[in-house]
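This is your field. Have a critical look at the following sequence-structure pair:

***
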Amino acid sequence: MTLIRMQPGSSSTSCGPQTVNEVMDVAGPQVCDDMTVEVALAVMAGARTGHLLVCDEDGLCTGLVTRAQLIAVCDSAAYDDRFRLRAVPGDRGLFTSPLTPTAEAEHAMRHRRLDALPVIDEQGCALGVLALAR
């Protein structure tokens, strides 16, 4: 896996991206954690994305869900049409700062086997997503 999505037209003369801010994607669709899994899958399909940023009722980022996680929930015996995103199993609270060195964030993602990681500001609001290419 390698980091993807350098900012177009970057004038950086260094050997590579130095911070997460230089390689993160702009925050895509953000949904509330009380949304049902079915609706979240529809939002993903409409946005043509493989993940959604999940926020609480105050608009603070609580994590990220992937299409694979939602499909696994739908295939489970515990699933019903009222299943909410806040109940989806997975790593919650894994975030990075835009000031994190790129190599450090990439190492952490590989160690935890994450394909995407929310980038948040000091208040907990989503700024973007750091994604790894396969």
